[in-house]
């Protein structure tokens, strides 16, 4: 259903909590939540769109879920650094003959993921050429560490660019503009 919210979780919630959870869902998530609550005979009538609610939201509270989402995205972007050791561990699973070197033929599905993550690389062969520092046709563990580092940087950059684009495309209230400016400055350091 998205955002970790289920109808069961909302069954004993207040009207405000149900409406808040509903408002934070994507349109598809809103429909699923409404259906699930309806099947349970619970508060589906509370899943009104913001225009249908009796209390109008202030501009800042209407934008708060988006700001929270962007802040969570920033946190996730920072946490992508935690992928680095995992990517580096992949080397052992690819080094089939345990000689401390990986040939193109040994680059398996793990490398496919790296090909998609690293900007400017379209194939395993290109990955090998770009990161095989000494040109011997194989990647050492140290060279693979550089592949891993570049993949994490690329992932961070793509996430950050998407968040900046989304945030800049928003018509922030005067109250939220400085909040967005501060968050954007942090995000820009990841690009």
Topology summary:
Layout: H1 7-10, H2 15-23, H3 27-39, H4 59-79, H5 83-94, E1 101-102, H6 109-117, H7 124-131, E2 139-140, H8 141-168, H9 177-188
Antiparallel strand pairs: 1-2
Helix pairs in contact: 4-8, 4-9, 5-8, 8-9
Which labels suit this protein?
mainly alpha; 2 domains; two-stranded antiparallel ribbon; calcium; calcium ion binding; 191 residues
Spatial order of strands in the largest sheet: 1-2
Helical residue percent band: 55-70%
Domain tally: 2
What would you call the structural class? mainly alpha
For the biggest sheet, the summary is: 2 strands, antiparallel
Instruction: Please tally the helical runs, counting DSSP H or I stretches of 4 or more residues.
Output: 9
Strand-and-helix sequence, N→C?
Answer: HHHHHEHHEHH
Our measurement of the CA-to-CA distance between the termini, rounded to an integer number of angstroms, reads 31 Å
What do the pLDDT scores average to?
80
How much of the polypeptide forms β-strand, as a percent range?
A: under 5%
Shape: elongated
Total strands = 2
Uncertain regions: pLDDT < 50 for 5+ in a row?
A: 48-59
Kindly provide the radius of gyration, computed on alpha-carbon positions and rounded to a whole number of angstroms.
23 Å
